[in-house]
Amino acid sequence: MSFALRVKTKTGQQVIKNLTPEHTIKDLKRQLCSISQIPEDRLHVLSGFPPKAFALGDDGLELSRSGLKSGDTLILEEKARETAPPLRGHISESVDCPGILMKKVVPADNSCLFSSVYFALNGKLDESGTAAPYMRQVIAETVASDPEMFSEAILGKPNREYCAWIQDDKSWGGAIELAILSNHYGFEIAVVDTINAIINRFGEDQHYTLRIFLMFDGIHYDPLFLESSDGASIQTIFPTDDDKVLQEAQELAREAKSSRQFTDVNKFTLKCMNCNIFLNGQLQAREHAQSTGHTNFGEV
């Protein structure tokens, strides 16, 4: 009898199918460490709903007696090193050291949403150029697998046509794509909307334990990160119960709106703040951003 478990990590999710009820906690830990690349002494596992810590201490305990059931979902996190210096990586359990929430500018190349998600998940830019095509493929496969949920009314075009469209590297992502990526990676994606000075939280209803932040100005997405006060490290992944960073992101949204750092795509004449030329409407703004890499627009 097989014992299948769905496993979510910061890089995605997969299914373990080669366990049985007679396998032990030790066998489970070995597999979890292998797929997550997290050392056993730093492995932290959450299970259930809402997610709670799952005990890994009894190596000899059989899975049939562990409280797990075939089909359950496990969320893997990496505990901080006990002897680590007080520097931050791209993920941390809490935000108790001083720092500043900042924006990382990514290229204006029609894939800014995907580049931003990659940076937020990994703490670095995608140098290989494979992240955006991969995410586009994930979205297309998800949409194609459920034509009833992803109907023409939701997508704005027929399901099959949308699947081809989103895999075109000239197509822009938005709310639908963010919702799918949130579910795929098992993270809440909080988007700081500088037009309306609000935060849209994708995956909020799933009660994920971790959150990333993006900023959206109407035509461009950038990821947000917390830089330590000494500039030595950054953090891009935050616990969803960390209200402090959420409040800082909300303040960023208000500041951006008050200083008009947004692009109302429905009605605007824009001025490129990099080269001072004037642009009319969404199409010209997109073309200018794509051809020049400029993303700093002001509404006239």
From TrEMBL:
GO terms for biological process: endoplasmic reticulum unfolded protein response; ERAD pathway. It comes from the Eukaryota. It is found in: Cytoplasm. Residues 101-214 form the OTU domain. CDD domains: OTU_OTU1, Ubl_OTU1. It is an enzyme of class 3 (hydrolase). PROSITE patterns: OTU, UBIQUITIN_2. Residues 3-76 form the Ubiquitin-like domain. PANTHER family: HIV-INDUCED PROTEIN-7-LIKE PROTEASE (PTHR13312), UBIQUITIN THIOESTERASE OTU1 (PTHR13312:SF0). This is Ubiquitin thioesterase OTU. It comes from Tribolium castaneum (Red flour beetle). The gene is AUGUSTUS-3.0.2_11093.
